[in-house]
Amino acid sequence: MVGPSGAGKTTLLELVCGIQSPDVGSVAAQPAVLMPQRDQLLPWLCAVDNAALALRIAGIARAQARAQASAAFAELGLEGFERAMPWELSSGMRQRVAFARTLLAGKPVLCLDEPFGALDAITRAEAQRWLAEALLREPRTVLLVTHDVEEAFVLADRVAVLCARPGYVIAELDVKLARPRSRTDPELVALRERALAALATGMSAHGASEAPASARD
Fold it and tell me: With 80 as the cut, is the pLDDT of residue 83 above it?
């Protein structure tokens, strides 16, 4: 999902995950887990124990939880950093630990709320690559919120464009490009431009004062 700030993207993720309850209607979804924009690693736990947190909460013994988390670390390029403390990790590595924790929660639906929004451009591109690879190895249904329109088409199979408040879907674009995807692929560029045009139209119709950064670039 892409859309301007205040459109309700994070609220929708929280509804899917059961963190909020709808005022009217209902949400029909399989069990879901939320990965927020900030990694929210606990500073007093090492990396592997942060990743294993959901397992420990579920009652799994520490040794077994650490073993499962260590296996995820190997797949996410974090091998050797299991006992590192959060402040010893780069921003990209912290996000990988947070994603490992999200995967290990074992839910069939992952809700990712701007997971790479705080990363620099180079780290963000690398994070997009490892996310795509991780989901190829362990497929899940993923609902991704991002302000980066290009990122949406690099990662997603379908992109929903939301208008400003009150937020609702104003465009839905299927992405049928082979993976891995190139940002310079003419088809991807065309899809991005269609999404940006829909965003501009939706914001103009609702009198929004400022487009998201990706629409201004």
Answer: yes
